[in-house]
Write a structure and sequence with these properties.
Helix 1 runs antiparallel to helix 7, helix 2 packs parallel to helix 7 and helix 7 packs across helix 10. The strands form four sheets. The chain has a seven-stranded mixed sheet with strand order 1-9-8-5-4-2-3, sandwiched between helices. Helices cover 38% and strands 15% of the residues. Strand 2, helix 4 and strand 3 form a beta-alpha-beta unit. The chain contains ten helices and 15 strands. By secondary structure, the protein is of the alpha/beta class. Bound molecules: pyridoxal-5'-phosphate (PLP). Pyridoxal-5'-phosphate binds next to helix 3 and helix 4.
């Protein structure tokens, strides 16, 4: 039986194990286990890689989004526009700062924020827009930025799935006022634990973020702001520095696999493959297909030892936890259709060309009559 896992974090670890072990040992030897030199270097290197002036490392992507909103001045009573088709953390981060998430539908081709839907959602309370670079595809930032400028709104990118993705030649993380990245293990750049980072080109935001993540202090025990414990661990910083050196290559491999899927599945009946917006480099955190009956396809693939995922089965506005937002089924038809039809195929840099072919072949077989 073929066996293609949905994701394989261990084979990547085996490839780089000696370097990882050396980096962990280096940290343990220093006696500095939280923040410290490795984290500071990682911040500099990561920000440099996406062409942002500053990087502030955090304990998770969720903290990165939350503190980015706070540093940007979002406060209780404000509204922040985002999308219902995302991981729940995008919406949660907005609520953590006391603001109200206002949702707009996504574009039917790219599954990212539909710029044409934004204007109608702007009210006098709107403070920020948070586009999500979903699955690794940059949101359509030019029109979003234009609308934000016109209304004086902050733009915070949810770049949790978009390490090294580019939009008209510029990297995600340097397209808005602030951006939040996640280094959750399964993300394109993953820690061996939790991690996140905010990028910004604004020195004042950078300074505020450094205080917010460390109890609001600039000097020890001089608490200038009401802050948080959102610091990155030194071991994660050291590990991420090692992995960052491979990220460009891993991203190229993801794009090669996606290209291969495209060639093999573009004309497959009943299957919609991801659209890649012109001028953008999608980094394929996820390789999503849309099909009418995803449970049948998943069963067919699983029977052959092929793993799949669903990102995400429910748009945020229909979730029980967010009933208080008072949206209803039918409010965001595109997000609802994608959530109902999406199936994520195996996608990771170490996946071989043969494995990709096996998966695509199985999808074609299923489409032909299973
Ligand atoms: C992973 C993710 C987050 C949250 O990141 P964590 O590091 O898990 O806290 C936020 N938004 C999106 C779109 C994500 O995929």
């Amino acid at each position: 039986m073929t066996n293609v896992p949905f994701l394989d974090l261990k084979s990547q670890y085996w490839e780089i194990k000696p370097e990882i072990m050396a980096s962990i040992e280096r940290v343990l030897d220093t006696g500095q286990y939280v923040l410290g030199a490795e984290v500071a270097e990682f911040e500099r290197e990561f920000a440099g890689r996406v062409n942002a002036a500053h990087g502030v490392a955090m304990n998770s992507g969720t903290s990165a989004l939350q503190l980015a909103l706070l540093a940007g001045g979002v406060s209780p009573g404000d509204e922040v526009i985002t999308v219902p088709l995302t991981f729940v953390a995008s919406v949660a981060a907005i609520e953590y700062v006391g603001a109200r998430p206002v949702l707009v539908d996504v574009d039917s081709r790219t599954y990212t924020m539909d710029p044409e839907a934004i204007e109608a959602a702007v009210t006098p309370k709107t403070k920020a827009i948070m586009p999500v670079h979903l699955y690794g595809q940059p949101a359509d930032m030019d029109p979003i930025t234009e609308i934000a400028k016109r209304h004086g709104l902050l733009v915070v990118e949810d770049a949790a799935q978009a390490h090294l993705a580019t939009y008209n030649g510029r990297s995600c993380g340097a397209l808005g006022d602030l951006a939040g990245f996640s280094f959750y293990p399964g993300k394109n750049l993953g820690a061996y634990g939790e991690g996140g980072l905010v990028t910004t080109n604004d020195a004042a935001y950078d300074r505020t973020l450094r205080m917010l993540r460390d109890w609001g202090q600039e000097k020890k025990y001089e608490h200038v702001l009401k802050g948080f414990n959102a610091r990155m661990e030194a071991i994660q910083g050291a590990i991420l520095r090692v992995k960052l050196r491979y990220l460009e290559n891993w991203t190229r491999l993801r794009r090669e696999r996606a290209h291969q899927y495209r060639l093999l599945l573009a004309d497959c009946p009943g299957v919609t493959i991801p659209y890649e917006r012109a001028g953008c480099e999608h980094v394929y955190h996820i390789y999503p297909l849309l099909v009418e009956d995803r449970e049948k396809l998943r069963k067919y693939l699983h029977a052959q030892g092929i793993g799949t995922g669903i990102h995400y089965p429910y748009p945020v506005h229909v979730l029980e936890a967010y009933r208080d937002l008072e949206y209803r089924t039918g409010d965001f038809p595109v997000a609802e259709r994608v959530a109902a039809q999406v199936v994520s195929l195996p996608m990771f840099p170490e996946m071989t060309s043969d494995q990709t072919e096996t998966v695509a072949h199985a999808v074609r077989e299923w489409a032909a009559g299973a």
